[in-house]
Each structure stands twice: as C-alpha cells, then as structure tokens.
C-alpha cells in the first residue's frame, strides 16, 4: 500500500476510466455505470482505513466487474427459460476481471463516454446529469444538490437517461466521422452549461457554485488533452479560465453580488488569466474561428484591463459583432447592447436592446429587464430604470441576484445614484 493522494480527487479522476473499461468490454452502459458507482462507494469507505491500493484503477475495475457479473448472473438466472438468455453475453463475460487483463489497459475512454452521455436522444438536462455522474464522478446526491432538486428526482432523471441510451441502441464507440462535429458541439455545450450554472447559479441562495465550475474546467482540460487540435475545445477552456478568474472578487463576504466594474481586480486569479490568454492567443492564430474562441477573446479583453475604465470597449463591440455573425442568439445581442452603450452612449444600447422585444425567448427573461434598467440608469431616467430593476428582480430565481436588483431599485428611489454598466457581472 502507498500513501494515498486526496481520495475524492483520485476517485473522480478514475471514475470515467473505470466506467469506460467496463462499458467497452460488456456494453450495457447503465449496468456498468451502477457497478462503478458501487465500486467508488466501496473505495470511499475502505481506502481511508486500509490505504489506497498500489493499483487503484485495477482495484476499482475488479470490484465493479465482480458486482456487474454477479448482477448479470442473476439476470440470466431469472430469464433462463427465455430462449434469448443464453445469448446475452459471451461466456468469458462471466469471469471476474483482474487488474492485469484487458480491462486494465491504459486506453482512455473519457472522450467516448462524453459522446455517449451527450447522445442526441437525451434532453440537455439529462445530458448534464449523466455527464456529471458518469464522467465527473459525482454522486446522485451531489448532482441533486447542485441543481436544487430532490435526490429521488435526480435519480429518476439519470435512470431515464440511461434507459434512453439503451433504447436508442447507442454503442460504446466514437460516433462516425460525419457525425462527430455535431456531437462534439453537444459535448462542448453541456460543459458550457455546467460551467455557467456554477458561475451564476440560476436558483437558490448561492451566487456561484465553485464545485460545478471546477468540475467543468477539469472536464474541459481532459477534453483538450484528448483533442489538442480542436480550436473550439481550446476556446471553451480559455473562456472558462478567464471567466472563473474573476470569481474571488465577484461576491462580498456576505455573498452579495459585486458587478464587474466594481470588482477588486487585484483579487482576480492572475495564473488563470495568463493561461487563458495564452490558450486563446495560440488558438486564434491557427484554428478556424468559432463562437467559444470569440467569447474567450472578449473575456480576455476584460481581464487584461487593469482598471474598469481601461477596458477596450470598441474592441469588445467588434468582437460581439463577429460573434453575432457566426453564432447569433439573443444573449449575444443582449451583451452587444451593453458594449454599444459603453462606446456610443446608452440610447444606442437601448436601440440595440429594442430588437429583442419581439423575441419570445427573451421577453420574459430577467436579464433583458436588468440590462434595460442599467441602460436607463446610464441615461439618467431613474423612474424607468427603477421599474425595470423591479421587473428583473421578480423574474430571477437567484436570491443574491434578486437582492442586488432590488437594492439598485431602492437606491434609485432614495437618491437616484447611477452605476457603471459592464458586459458581464
């Protein structure tokens, strides 16, 4: 036995490798995933007392494989009268795996797992849950807590996702070349959603969830290691690093929100900024331009400004216009409106914002009303700003964001103070 590293970190690292090894051999993703979770639980209980094995990956594979073959034996026993029972698995599948067999090879199946968890048969919510469980190594309870739903609800969501994959006849293999570009887009989108939920929690008492942002960054690093020449994979990792670098300054000790322009930039994580800037600079010079790379470039412009007033807003406007051409969506327009206001004045920003009034995806979104409130405040229209702040506050389910918006409205009612508007809080 060796002196163990932090067990939780080790288990998270090994979880997708073990699951990939079992699924590659046995198929049956759902059953393999359940067996791996049981092996992880056994390790979390035994290793702190007995020490980490010399070959922790092999230990997990052996335990999970034994659990799986026991279950499959029972399944065949229950169905032995059916003609198909004998064909469920090859005979060698009932041999317990050992750390020395093909299951314990060094082949890394993380990318295949990511593709499987982001199968097009699944909804985005199910893709996120399954990715966090199967690739991230989080327990059902941890995932449920992250999204503020009961554990039973999340367990049902994960169970339905595994059943959907089985029904769709998905195989444990990389998708064909002609499908790969579309599927990698789904993988990146899921990691992006996980990160965003951690950086700006959509509900509950916390402004941000460092566990989710850290997990998204870890998975993005893994994906870049597997696909080092993919510019959008690199762009997403850079975007995460550059955005997460601001997290220490984004809230006060009481958990209240600090907008970008008011943050103490000395508290930003310089190492993450340097790494993110280096990645996006290198990627933009050699890869076909994609939306994650452009968003990373925007984040880099913000992070490289030592003071809020030094921000190169004209460059940000140009980058948002580029982003709108290659990946138009309402949130791009929303942020573009803010950047335009910082260059051309609040009325110009409000004019851009007005183009979203007929967009059904945004009419009830609190962010639209929050940005409109900021721009009205910049323009000196305190009454309109206050009204929009209150509408936005009623529309958000994030308690820190709600308190911030209500606080802005209250201050306007008291003395009409103004606030600097920034691209992203």
Q: If strands are numbered along the chain, what order do they take across the biggest sheet?
A: 1-2
What average pLDDT do the residues reach? 85
Helix-and-strand structural type? mainly alpha
* Number of DSSP strand runs: 2
The number of distinct helices, counting runs of at least 4 residues, comes to 18
Biggest sheet descriptor: 2 strands, parallel
CA-atom Rg in angstroms:
24 Å
Q: What is the terminal separation in angstroms?
A: 48 Å
What's the gist of this structure?
This protein is mainly alpha-helical and 425 residues long. It is built from 18 helices and 2 strands. It has a two-stranded parallel sheet with strand order 1-2.
Overview of the molecule:
- The chain has 425 residues and is mainly α.
- Among the domains are: 178-311, no CATH class; 364-425, no CATH class.
- Helices cover 64% and strands 1% of the residues.
- The chain has helices at 7-26, 29-50, 56-78, 110-117, 124-135, 140-146, 151-167, 177-199, 210-226, 231-244, 270-284, 291-304, 313-326, 330-344, 346-354, 366-378, 382-395, 399-415, and strands spanning 203-204, 397-398.
- Helix 13 (313-326) runs antiparallel to helix 14, helix 15 runs antiparallel to helix 16 and helix 16 (366-378) runs antiparallel to helix 17.
- The model is unreliable at 81-86, 92-101 and 417-425 (pLDDT under 50).
Write out key terms for the chains shown:
single chain; 425 residues; mainly alpha; two-stranded parallel ribbon; 18 helices; elongated; disordered C terminus
């Amino acid at each position: 036995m060796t002196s163990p590293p932090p067990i939780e970190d080790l288990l998270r690292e090994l979880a997708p490798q073990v699951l990939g090894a079992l699924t590659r051999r046995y198929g049956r993703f759902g059953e393999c995933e359940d067996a791996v979770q049981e092996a992880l639980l056994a390790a979390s209980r035994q290793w702190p007392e007995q020490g980490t094995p010399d070959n922790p990956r092999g230990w997990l594979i052996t335990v999970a494989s034994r659990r799986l073959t026991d279950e499959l034996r029972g399944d065949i026993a229950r169905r032995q009268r059916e003609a198909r029972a004998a064909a469920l698995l090859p005979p060698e599948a009932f041999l317990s795996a050992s750390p020395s067999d093909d299951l314990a090879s060094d082949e890394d199946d993380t990318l295949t797992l990511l593709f499987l968890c982001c199968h097009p048969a699944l909804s985005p919510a199910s893709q996120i849950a399954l990715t966090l469980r199967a690739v991230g190594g989080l327990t059902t309870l941890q995932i449920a807590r992250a999204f503020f739903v009961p554990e039973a609800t999340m367990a049902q969501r994960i169970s339905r996702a595994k059943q959907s994959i089985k029904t769709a006849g998905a195989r444990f293999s990389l998708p064909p070349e002609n499908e790969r570009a579309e599927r990698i887009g789904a993988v990146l989108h899921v990691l992006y959603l996980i990160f965003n939920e951690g950086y700006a929690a959509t509900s509950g008492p916390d402004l941000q969830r460092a566990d989710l942002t850290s997990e998204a960054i870890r998975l993005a690093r893994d994906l870049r290691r597997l696909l080092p020449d993919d510019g959008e994979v690199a762009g997403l990792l850079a975007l995460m690093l550059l955005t997460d670098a601001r997290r220490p300054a984004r809230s006060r000790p009481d958990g209240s929100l600090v907008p970008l322009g008011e943050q103490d930039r000395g508290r930003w994580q310089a190492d993450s900024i340097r790494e993110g800037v280096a990645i996006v600079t290198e990627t933009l010079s050699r890869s076909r331009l994609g939306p994650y790379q452009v968003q990373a470039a925007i984040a880099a412009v913000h992070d490289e400004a030592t003071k809020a007033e030094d921000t190169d807003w004209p460059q940000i406007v140009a980058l948002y216009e580029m982003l709108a051409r290659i990946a138009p969506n309402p949130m791009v327009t929303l942020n573009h409106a803010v950047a335009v206001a910082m260059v051309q004045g609040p009325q110009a920003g409000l004019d851009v914002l007005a183009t979203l009034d007929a967009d059904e995806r945004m009419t009830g979104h609190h962010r639209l009303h929050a940005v409109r409130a900021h721009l009205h405040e910049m323009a000196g229209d305190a009454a309109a700003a206050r009204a929009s702040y209150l509408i936005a506050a009623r529309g958000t389910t994030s308690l820190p964001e709600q308190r911030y918006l209500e606080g802005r409205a209250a201050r306007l009612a008291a003395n009409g103070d103004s606030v600097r508007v920034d691209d992203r809080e």
